[in-house]
Amino acid sequence: MDARHLRYALALAEHQHFGRAATSVGIAQPPLSKQIAALEREIGAKLFDRTPNGVFPTAAGEAFLVRARKALCEMSAAAVDAGRAARGETGRLRLGFIGSALLELLPSVLGRFGAGHPGVRLGLHEMSTAQSAAALIGGELDVAVGRGAPRGAGAEGLVSVTVGRDQLVAVVGTAHPYAGQARVRLEQLREQRLIIASVGEEPTVLSGLREVFDTRSLDTATEARDVHTIIGLAACGIGVGLGPACLRAAARPDTWVCEVSPRTWLPDLVLSFRAGDSSPVLGAFLDTVRSVCPGVGRRLGTNAPPGVRESGMR
Known about the structure:
Arc Repressor Mutant, subunit A, D-Maltodextrin-Binding Protein, domain 2, five-stranded mixed β-sheet, six-stranded mixed β-sheet, 3 domains, disordered C terminus
């Protein structure tokens, strides 16, 4: 028994005539009669009464037709669901990200992806770069966004692309002497008590800061978990907060943000995923990133999953 038999039986029940039913399903009457007879033999019950006035379902036939209609509906729904899954319209995407990614990159990416893929379940996890890299390598995440490319064992199996660059800025409370200044020099900052990202949370950021600040300045710095805490502590007058320029989006009325001179670049904002992951949902997500971040598709190159390369993400 297959879907064809179900459709034949339903057509015969609807038209109550072998000739009309055969025409509706696109076959000749004799083959239809043989298929219905074969179906009845397989089931072991007479499904239709053949009378001079027409062909009508028996009690067994009525019971069979109820199930047949449901089965065909389920088969149709299964085909639709399979197509949606193949296009990345359903499924799950697990994303790990650093907090500062919520200031510029992720609002536009997640907003567009969510609008175009409402059937995808998003698992969103704020975590440090090191934590998200470990989770990605371990298969607990599908995508990670952090500062700098993941390092260590297993990182060679990842594809990492730069999705943003950001420079260092200083944030102070409005009562601080730097408030109102357009920029502050590194030499001035070295004389201040600094507020920086936690060493345990973002070691790559600290590594970059070590290139422009002496050990004393960093060893006496106050550590904060994320940019919001850096801003809050600066507002309290604890010191001068250092962070990415995108923190302007989260700055409070009681703070002031200064450019740092000379310009000092932070580690790139990097998106990573497993090279062998051919998930259609991942492909759809990366396609959204490509549309939001020009140049990302070119940097992905041939390491992109098949679904991404086919969609033009080169």
